[in-house]
Amino acid sequence: MKAKQYHFVRRKYDREFLMDCVFFSEADRKVSLRKPFCYNFHGIFIQNEGQAKIAIENEISPLDKGDFIFLRANQVREWMAVTPDFSGYLLIFENEFIETFFKDPLFIHRFQFFQTNQPAILKCDDQFLLEHTANCERIKTELDNLQDDSHHYIRSLLYTILIQINRAYIKTYNLSTKLYQDNISLRFRKALEENIRKKQRVEEYAALLKVSRSQLNMAIKKTSGKSTSIIIRERLLTEIKRDLLYSEKNISEIGYELGFSDSSNFVRFFKRLTGHTPNDFRSVHSK
Q1: Lower Cβ count inside 10 Å, N or C end of the chain?
Q2: Taking a C-beta distance cutoff of 8 angstroms, is the pair 76, 37 a contact?
Q3: In order of start, what are the domains of the chain with their CATH numbers?
C-alpha cells in the first residue's frame, strides 16, 4: 500500500514559521489506523496518556505513557491499536527550520535519536515526561501568541528539549557521545541521507566529503562502532524495504533505481542480508 505523505503547513501562524507544536489525541483528531503515512519533515511525539502500537518501517512496537517517538522525515509509519485516551504532544519541524534557527547545517544530524539506524522510541519516567510536556505547552502557547522576541524563547525551549532527550537516549542505548562534535561523521550522515539512492560505495562518500577512505572509516568507527560500508549497507537496505512495501515498482525497477547492475545482483544482496528474496519479503509483509 502506498504511503500518504504529509507536508508542513508553513504559514499557519500568519507568518512563515517552520516548526509547530500541537496537542494530539484520538478524541479530537481521529487517528487513521492501518494506513501507512510519512512526513516530509521531522517530528517528536511525546505520549502522555493511553496506549497504542506503531509500525515504523514495518517494525511493530507497543507504546505507553512516557514514550518519546521519533518521526524521521520520509520514514513510513502506521498507527495501530490506539486506545480512546491516547494523547500527547507532537513537535514538528523542517530541516530548513533547524538549519537556519540554530545556524548549523549539521544540527539535526548531531542527535543520535534521529539516526536512521537507531531505535525510534525512548521510554522515560514520569518526571522526564512532565518536564517536557510542560516545555511543549510553553512552545504551543508562545506560537499561539507570537511576539517580536518569540523566536528567541522558542529556540531556547526547543534546544533544551533536544539536548536533554539526546542525553537520555545515549544513556538508555549506551551509545557514543562522540558523534555530536565529529565533523566528518556528521557530514557523512547528512550526505548519506541525501545521496543513498545514487551512491553506495565508501569511495564515493570519501570523495564527496574530500577526505581519504581511511579518514572516513576511522571517524565512523569511532562514533558508531561500525564500518562505513556497514552503515551504507544498512541504510540502503532500509530504502529497498521501503520501496518493496510502499511502492508499486517491480523488483527490476527497484534494483535499477538503487544502483544494481542487474536483478540477480539485487536479489543476492537482499537475500544475503535478510534471508528472503525481494518477492518473498514483499508477499509476506505487504498489506
Answers
A1: C
A2: yes
A3: 4-175 (2.60.120.280), 179-285 (1.10.10.60)
pTM assigned to the model = 0.84
Cα separation, 92 vs 144, whole angstroms: 15
Classify burial at 284, counting beta carbons within 10 Å of its beta carbon; exposed 0-12, middle 13-18, buried 19 or more: exposed
DSSP string, the chain: -PPEEE---TTTTSS---EEEEEEETTTS---BT--EEESSEEEEEEEE--EEEEETTEEEEE-TTEEEEE-TT--EEEES--TT-EEEEEEE-HHHHHHHTT-TTGGGG-GGG-TTS-SEEE--HHHHHHHHHHHHHHHHHHHT--TTHHHHHHHHHHHHHHHHHHHHHHHHT--SGGGG-HHHHHHHHHHHHHTTT--SHHHHHHHHTS-HHHHHHHHHHHHSS-HHHHHHHHHHHHHHHHHHH----HHHHHHHTT-SSHHHHHHHHHHHHSS-HHHHHHHH--
From first to last of its 287 residues, the chain has per-residue pLDDT tens of: 677 877 777 667 666 677 889 888 765 555 566 788 888 888 899 999 999 999 888 789 999 999 999 988 888 888 888 898 999 999 988 777 777 777 788 888 888 888 877 889 999 999 999 999 999 999 999 998 988 888 889 888 988 999 999 999 999 999 888 877 888 999 999 999 999 999 999 999 999 999 999 999 999 999 888 999 999 999 999 999 999 988 889 999 999 999 898 899 999 999 999 999 999 999 888 75
- Residues contacting 219, CB < 8 A, separation 6+: 182, 184, 185, 188, 211
